[in-house]
Amino acid sequence: MPGQVQSITRAAAILRLLASSSGRLGIGEIARSLDLAKGTAHGIVRTLQDVGFVEQDKTSGKYQLGAALLHLGTSYLDVNELRSRSINWADPLAARSGEAVRIGTLLDGKVLVVHHVFRPDDTLQTLDVGSLLPPHATALGKVLLAYDVGAANAVMQGEPEPYTRRTLVTARTLSRALTEIRDNGWGAEIEEMTLGKAGIAAPIRGYGGLVVGAIGLSGPVDRVCDAQRHPRPALVAYVRDAARAVSRDLGAARW
Amino acid sequence: MTDSYVVSIDQGTTSTRCIVFDRRGNLVSVAQREHQQHFPRPGWVEHDALEIWRNVGKVVPRALAQAGIVAGQVAAIGIANQRESTVVWDRRTGVPVAPAIIWQDTRTDTLVEALARAPGAEDLRQRCGLPLATYFSGPKLRWLLDHTPGLYERAERGEVLFGTMESWLIWNLTGGPDGGLHLTDVTNASRTMLMDLRALGWHPDSLAFFGIPAAMLPEIRSSSEVYGTATAVLPGVRIAAALGDQQAALFGQTCFAPGDAKCTYGTGSFLLLNTGTEPVHSSHGLLTTVGYQIGGQPAVYALEGSIAITGSLVQWFRDRLELISSAPEIETLARTVDDNGGCYIVPAFSGLFAPHWRSEARGVIVGLTSYITKGHLARAVLEATGWQTREVVDAMNADSGLELTALRVDGGMTANNLLMQFVADVVAVPVVRPMVAETVSLGAAYAAGLAVGYWPDLEGLRSNWHPAARWVPKMDNAVRAEERENWQRAVERTFDWIKPEARAANE
Q: How far does the CA of residue B170 sit from the closest CA of chain A (Å)?
């Protein structure tokens, strides 16, 4: 069995200390209570502050439990915040790829479209922000399922609707597709929801690499895929670049 | 052949940005640097013009490096700038004689009151298209002349120069004390109150009204022509455009036809309507301004509706009421309810701007009952921006005789879906957001690229414009009419809040 990670046990102790304290605590008080060097305590508290578990009072400089702890059970990134933070990256993705762009998150087992950029060809298109897409038959949805075991199991235990002959409806095929997405870091959907249509998507990550959404493009299969029906590498690169740019903005360090 | 690009410098109120654009009008790289805001006294807002010039020297090379290009690949530079902010500097040393007075600065309020009663005030308004207000450059320049010992005499002798930010930057870019070009463009000149709106030149009567020596004024040029070649920052590159930021956004949104309009949603919001080659005088509280002028072609005019408080109402909701922790969360909170529950917020924090211009009005929240939740308040906050847009659009339609058929939008608040849908619902025309959100910078780049032949014509620019999102009106006519009446009744309740005695005491 691997040993304990010391900084995590210390972080847990700091959270318990703040929770049991009647008022706010300064760094010196925290360090003394736990017999830690002040620098060590400060490093841990700052990290907890970055992820929202601890808040610092502006005037006294002292610390208390953060609001994010109270909402641990719910999604930590507001969907409107996600749209606001990604809008400057979604536009160039549509401009460079020539295809429509969507950003989605999971909501009650469906993909909620939180942002939509029109295909830049001046044709009449309808904004579908707020609509729900099937997770097993869209690139956005499969990418989101790949990083959410609970949602993936729920979809596989249900009876995924077969939209076309290519829709993944069995637990075995879907599970294999999700593994492949995790291995590649992106996913595609080719005529799995609508004949003649395809899509590519990649995960958007927040602090610590947590997947908070997916960004992707969709369009006619002959534009999105090459002659061998593989997603065009240039488009895949555009999608992954955009996903990484949004992730960096959201504070994901490695992506 | 190596690719060439157009560089735009957006000298804004809080920061200076440089953006590199490619031939399709796509953003290639961005570099940005904020400058200090100085508030030496209540109502005063100042910038250090030298700091701003230094920042230009930092952001331009950074943007080029990010794009991986060299000065030789830059076809032209275009400048967009914060409007009305006033700089006076020494022609020999290049050092400003005083801090720049920024557009929000209200130190000239008593001066403006006095000028409004002076003979010739009504003629001035007809000539320049603007009401006397602290907002514009003329009163700010007069204040500097009054409060800097010896400045008037030095100005008469041509030893000191006046300019708004584009003049200051162009003078420095083209050599400064060493042969720098002292010029401005028609859009910026139209915000001084000193220019004859039809003749597009400084008017002697206007200069006499404010007591400003002609020797210190820049030459007025079009918004899109080669002014000269830079010797600093990007040596050898042609400087080919200058526009005030809101006019640049109008240009970047390719509002080239009479009736085309755009609204930029930021802290405040600015709606500009292209009215063609004839200035339209407003009888509904709008400003008449120059939209743009391309080389020797006739100038294109615009009506402008300025709304003081839009995005800043959301900031107030976040920072003062602390009901949300980030601005986008207002949409989440507003969606917890289906309607405003009968509650309206009119943000007349420092009076009401267009179309009411009531300085004695103050903000109200009306329709409060025990039913109202913070969700209803969040809705009322967003709806205030929608209704204020509607009021300005109504004034524009009445003044111009043109019926707005679609509204092009840009700025940070366009990320708010609920708000954009509400604007479409209450203005009752489709609201369209373009693919390139950076319309101010894009407009300056377009005007510069046009002047050097990088883009062939306006039609070519128009083909670069693509809608990224479009909101269509969905509100029932009867609901719209009733809500509008409620809003109007709420607005009436803001009037006359500051008592006349209190106003007199402040003067």
A: 30
Each residue of B124-178: pLDDT tens digit?
999 999 888 888 999 999 999 999 999 999 999 999 999 999 999 999 999 999 9
State how far residue A107 is from chain B, nearest Cα, in angstroms.
14
B38-69, pLDDT tens digit by residue?
888 888 889 999 999 999 999 999 999 988 89
The residues spanned by each domain of chain A are 6-74, 79-250
Q: Do B325 and A96 touch (CB under 8 A)?
A: no
How far is it, in rounded angstroms, from Cα B503 to Cα B507? 7
pLDDT of A252 reads 66
Residue A84, chain B, CB below 8 Å: the answer is yes
Is 0.90 topped by the overall pTM?
Answer: no
Please state, in angstroms and as integers, the Cα–Cα distance from residue A28 to each residue in A6, A9, A20, following that order.
20, 19, 17
Give B367→chain A minimum CA distance, Å.
28
A52: its two tokens: 């929202």
| Candidates B327, B414, B435; nearest CB to A120 | B435
A70 in B contact zone (CB under 8 Å): no
Stronger pLDDT, A122 or A111, i.e. the higher one: A111
Q: Which domains does chain B have, with CATH numbers?
A: 1-306+402-474 (3.30.420.40), 311-388+490-498 (3.30.420.40)
What average pLDDT does the structure give for chain B? 92
Contact criterion met (CB < 8 Å) for A122 and B469: no
What was the ipTM of the complex prediction? 0.80
Q: Which residue of A has its CA nearest to B327?
A: A81
CB-nearest partner of A127 from B331, B435, B470: B470
CB of A74 within 8 Å of any CB in chain B?
no
Contacts of A67 in chain B (CB under 8 A): 325
CATH code at A6-74: 1.10.10.10
Beta-carbon separation of B26 and A129 below 8 A: no
The three-state DSSP-derived secondary structure of chain A is CCCCCHHHHHHHHHHHHHHHCCCCECHHHHHHHHCCCHHHHHHHHHHHHHCCCEEECCCCCCEEECHHHHCCCCCCCCHHHHHHHHHHHHHHHHHHHCCEEEEEEEECCEEEEEEEECCCCCCCCCCCCCCEECHHHCHHHHHHHHCCHHHHHHHHHCCCCCCCCCCCCCHHHHHHHHHHHHHHCCEEEECCCCCCEEEEEEEEECHHHCEEEEEEEEEEHHHHECCCCCECHHHHHHHHHHHHHHHHHHCCCCC
CATH of domain A79-250: 3.30.450.40
- Residues B317, A16: Cα–Cα separation, whole Å: 32
Query: Token match 């003749």: residue?
Result: B199
The verdict on a CB contact (< 8 Å) between B329 and A81 is yes
Which residue has tokens 């005529």? A191
Find the mean pLDDT for residues B319-333: 91
